[in-house]
Amino acid sequence: MKKIFIFIIILMIVTSLYADFKIMGGLNISKYSDPGGDRNFQRSYKLGFLGGIGFERKLSRYILLEANILYFKKGTIAKFIDTHDSRSKYTMNTISLPFLVRAQLLSESSPYVVAGIELSYILSHNKRIEGQDIVDIKNETKDSDFGYVLGCGYQIELEEDLFFFIETRYQFGDRNMTRNLEEGTMKTNSILLMIGLRS
């Protein structure tokens, strides 16, 4: 899997020589879903941040292909509903590679929508229980994730070939990140709010 990610990053860098460039940053809230998990175990959203670059290639005046390289903090806040009400915070640091199709109404300032897939490589994954030390759980979960992306945004033309944009995305993982299937299902979900510039 690592070789695949390296190949994709090299391909994106080479492709960038023939594409428009963008830089972006923002915040995200994310959590892990557990459809088959214990009903006495609740997960809620955790705040994180992201930043990265992107490349775009026009297919037509209103349709573009887009690839991003993002540093992305995912995670969740988990709570056992028992007499102790113990709470844990999970933090997953990832390199995220979304591949998207973007459709916009106009070629200048315009609203737009995006849809596509996301591949991500897990750099680190840890858990912190309230009042205890941080525990590394990377070996207990998988090294990579795969999911889908839906979003919308608005771009403002500042000058010729320079745009400011604000965008929101919903990314939902389709892979069970737990190595031990007896521990249930753990999938990632994230809502992103980004701003940036592209030229």
Give your account of this protein's structure:
With 199 residues, this protein is mainly beta. It has one domain (2-198): Porin (Beta Barrel). Helix content is 8%, strand content 65%. It has 1 helix and 10 strands. The chain has an 8-stranded antiparallel β-barrel. The radius of gyration is 18 Å and the shape is elongated. The two termini are 32 Å apart.
What is the CATH architecture annotation? Beta Barrel
Q: According to CATH, what is the topology?
A: Porin
**Helix share bin:** under 10%
Q: What order do the helices and strands follow?
A: HEEEEEEEEEE
Alpha-carbon Rg, integer: 18 Å
Query: Helix segment count?
Result: 1
- How would you write the strand order of the largest sheet? 1-3-4-5-6-8-9-10
Number of structural domains = 1
Secondary structure tally: strands: 10
The quaternary organization reads as single chain
Instruction: Please tell me what the overall shape is.
Output: elongated
The secondary structure category is mainly beta
Question: If you average the pLDDT, what whole number results?
Answer: 85
Strand content: over 45%
Note the main sheet: 8 strands, antiparallel, barrel
- Poorly predicted sequence stretches spanning 5 or more consecutive residues: none
**CATH class designation:** Mainly Beta
How far is the N terminus from the C terminus? 32 Å
